[in-house]
Amino acid sequence: MASVIECKRAVLPNGLTVLFQPMKHASSMGVGVFLKQGSLAETSSEHGYFHFLEHMLFKDTEHRTSKEIAESIERVGGILNGSTGREYTQYYVVAIKDQAELAFDILSDMLFRPLFRDEDIRTEKGVIMEEMRSYEDAPDDFVYDYYFRNIFGKSPYGRDIIGTKKSVTGVSEKSIRSFFEKHYFPKNMVISVSGNFTWEKILDLTNKYFSFENPKGKNPTELIIPAPKKSYSKHLERRKIEQFHIMLGVNGNKRDYRTVTVTQLISTILGGGMASRLFQNIREKEGLCYSIYSFPSYYKTTGLFSISSATSKEKAARCVELILKELESITKFGFSKSELADAKSNQMGSIAIGYELPENRMNNIGLQEIYYGKYFSLEDRMKSIKSVTLEEINETAKQLFDLKKVHLSCVGDMTESQFAKIPVQFGG
């Protein structure tokens, strides 16, 4: 097994890190470029710039128009996309393996030869404004950003990745080019590839298309945002909509390989699927909601454990009450041996299925490099999951589900007096 899933790693003379995981017999491939920074690295005057820049890099380059970029990938049935996170930014191509050189060529052109024309900047401002409006009009999207703003306050963790209307309209050719030059250089990037290739071919393609000079003396900035103080409080955004959207947050942990392993098991048992406690006890038995699930969020200095649900305003208080009772039960009585065993088999199965896709492997090795600086193989991950004890998972759950530290952000058609009756006690 180890020889099949090994990860090759090299650093080019210009500082670019190259990762490759072979997948024999795969017909498709994944090629991704990760920038080691995301929205947390923005200053207050640059709010939303990483996201704006992600959009701009799909515009015209020295060699291609934006239409030619799109056509070249779609012509071969491939996918070209990007995403902006708080701690990294990604651009990737998924296509048939015969198009590897095209993928390298396109990504190289986008990331190192953008034109930043004034007319493109003006156009993209309008596009991003429409994107903002789409979030505002979709309460299930809006509640997520609303929740982060409320729980993290003025910390960079609480800022919307997309920016604000003021910051976006203030972007100029000079400001976005300066921002690009500050962050986009080889030493600040990781290229991650998975597919049916040889290591030698990947190195040849990387050297051919990504051997750009790294500016002299330019190194990635190790930006550590101080762990923010979380606000354990209640917030309501009143809107005349049919469903009532709930985001309930409790304590979380910063990203650590072992912590991630244990917390993912907790989330699987609590709200990871149709067999989870929350789904069975609140949706199936009580019929209180349509959707309910939990998910952990991990960052370098902080983390969250969140529970999301959509219900009616008449059922919202009871829904929250039962969520809190479920958390309280876990802190008092813990999980059972059978729950832990099922969660382990669920996680191992999910990871194994994901390994069948080159795109997933490309993402996996790239993110492990960014977050851990090392590679954990499929075998390593399976061993780590198997080694989690009942005592360990129950102790972690007690630390997470301290009911004196509960945050509630909601969006829906409810008065403040009605909202005040939702049973959440705040002691921290």
Question: What is this entry, summarized?
Answer:
The protein is α+β, with helices and mostly antiparallel strands and 428 residues long. The chain is built from 16 helices and eleven strands.
Explained architecture:
With 428 residues, this protein is an alpha+beta fold. It folds into two domains: 202 residues, Metalloenzyme, LuxS/M16 peptidase-like (Cytochrome Bc1 Complex, Chain A, domain 1), CATH 3.30.830; 187 residues, Cytochrome Bc1 Complex, Chain A, domain 1 (2-Layer Sandwich). Helices cover 45% and strands 18% of the residues. It contains 16 helices and eleven strands. The strands form two sheets. Strands 1-2-6-3-5-4 form a six-stranded mixed beta sheet, sandwiched between helices. A five-stranded mixed beta sheet has the order 7-11-8-10-9, sandwiched between helices. α10 packs antiparallel against α11. The radius of gyration is 23 Å and the shape is globular. 39% of the residues are buried. The model has no long low-confidence stretch (mean pLDDT 95).
